[in-house]
Amino acid sequence: MKINKEGYRIIAISGLVCLVLWGLLYYFQSHHWEAGLLITCAVILAIFWLFIVAFFREPRRVKIHDPELVFSPCDGRVVVTEVVHEDEYIKEEMLQISIFMSVTNIHMNWLPVAGEVEYHKYHPGRFLIAWHPKSSTENERTTTVVKLEDGKRVLFRQVAGLIARRIVSYIKVGDKVKQNDVFGFIKFGSRIDVLVPKDSELLVEIGDPVVGSQTPLVRLKK
């Protein structure tokens, strides 16, 4: 299993903490607790550490390139499909698709389209539950706009959640990006909003599970 680079430090620190906790338990309780209870504690700590390792797993996925499609930027489940007025940069009505990632999902982020990064901004903010309607505008987040070859613009936001406290983005304004390349990572539960031209053909519904870089969300109008 390949591990994403964003997990190296957390995995090392959490492993060290688990070892120290086990050492303290053994030192102070080995004369008072039965061996079975000490073994149970060791198993619980090991499972917790393995969960942390598994969270940062990096899957191998086939790269799909189709300029007519906008792909899901993450694994998760669709929680919003609605027309909204985008007020930050594009300033027009757009179709928004929001995807919630649970702590068990892969948390790597893939580029939903190819083109040139026209806008990218980090916003500090709150840590509301990721499916809360106000999380898109009040939580810590990044906003990115990619201009496609035909001039259309697609906006997407990495949104921190109640547990997620660290958003990582590898792109900057002026970058020429390829569809379904990795562009970032969100640590623990979180959400991504994708905003596309409102005349796009919606291909998913609320409640649908999606796979990052593999599931098309909309078909852009030619």
Describe this structure in a few short sentences.
It contains three helices and 14 strands.
Fold and architecture overview:
The structure is a single chain. The protein is of the alpha+beta class. The protein has two domains: 5-55; 69-219, Glucose Permease (Domain IIA) (Distorted Sandwich), CATH 2.70.70.10. 21% of the residues lie in helices and 35% in strands. The chain has three helices and 14 strands. It has helices at residues 8-29, 35-55, 135-138, and strands at 69-71, 76-86, 92-101, 108-110, 115-123, 141-147, 153-160, 167-169, 176-177, 182-186, 190-197, 201-202, 209-210, 216-219. The strands form three sheets. Strands 9-5-6-7-11-3-2-13 form an eight-stranded antiparallel sheet. It has a three-stranded antiparallel sheet with strand order 1-14-12, with no helix packed on it. A hairpin with a 5-residue loop joins β2 and β3. α1 runs antiparallel to α2 (35-55). The longest helix is centred in the first third of the chain and has 22 residues, at 8-29. The chain is elongated and about 75 Å long. The two termini are 40 Å apart.
